[in-house]
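Anyone up for a design puzzle?
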C-alpha cells in the first residue's frame, strides 16, 4: 500500500493519524489544510485547491488527509486504502476545544504558516451543522469507492488499528 486516504469530520483526528501513519510507514504526509488555506486564514481559490489536490493525488506515494469533497472521487480512485475516522460529535467538539486551548495563537504543523489557532464560533457552527451532511457524504464514498476501507468509530478502535499497523504494516 502506497497511497492512503484519511477522511473524517473536523476534530476526528485525521492529522494526528496521518502523522503517526507517516512515521510508521515512511510515506509522505499531505494535509488538505495546507492546500485550503493561505497565510492569515485566507481561503485559496477553489480551482487552485482542486489542481493542487490532484497534483498530490498523482504522486506515487502519499498519506493524504482532509476534506475538499470535490476531490474525493479522484483521490479514492488513486488510493490503495481509505481510512474513515467516524467519531461521535461530542468527542470531536471536545477535541477541537482542547486543540484550540492548547495551541491558541500558534500555528500547528498541519496548517499553513501564519494560521494561528483561534476560537471561532463560525467553525463550531460548521462542525455541528455539517455533521449529518459529512456523515452521508463519507458513507457514500465508503460504499462506492470499491477500495479497502478501515471505518474507525472510536479512539480505542483507532489505537488498536495503529498498533496492528505498527506490527504488521499497512494491510495489503
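Challenge accepted. My sequence:
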Amino acid at each position: 500500500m502506497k497511497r492512503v486516504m484519511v477522511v473524517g469530520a473536523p476534530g476526528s483526528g485525521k492529522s494526528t493519524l496521518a502523522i503517526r501513519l507517516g512515521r510508521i510507514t515512511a510515506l509522505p504526509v499531505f494535509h488538505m489544510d495546507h492546500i485550503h488555506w493561505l497565510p492569515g486564514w485566507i481561503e485559496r481559490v477553489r480551482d487552485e485547491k482542486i489542481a493542487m489536490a490532484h497534483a498530490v493525488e498523482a504522486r506515487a506515494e502519499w498519506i493524504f488527509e482532509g476534506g475538499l469533497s470535490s476531490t474525493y472521487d479522484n483521490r479514492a480512485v488513486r488510493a490503495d486504502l481509505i481510512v474513515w475516522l467516524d467519531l461521535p460529535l461530542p468527542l470531536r467538539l471536545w477535541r477541537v476545544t482542547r486543540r484550540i486551548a492548547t495551541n491558541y495563537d500558534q500555528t500547528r504543523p498541519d496548517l499553513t504558516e501564519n494560521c494561528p489557532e483561534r476560537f471561532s464560533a463560525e467553525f463550531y457552527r460548521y462542525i455541528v451543522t455539517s455533521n449529518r451532511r459529512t456523515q452521508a457524504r463519507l458513507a457514500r464514498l465508503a460504499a462506492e469507492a470499491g477500495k479497502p476501507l478501515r471505518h474507525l468509530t472510536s479512539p480505542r478502535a483507532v489505537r488498536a488499528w495503529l498498533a496492528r499497523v505498527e506490527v504488521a504494516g499497512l494491510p495489503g
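A detail worth pointing out: Helices lie at 14-25, 32-36, 46-57, 72-78, 89-103, 121-129, 131-144, 155-168.
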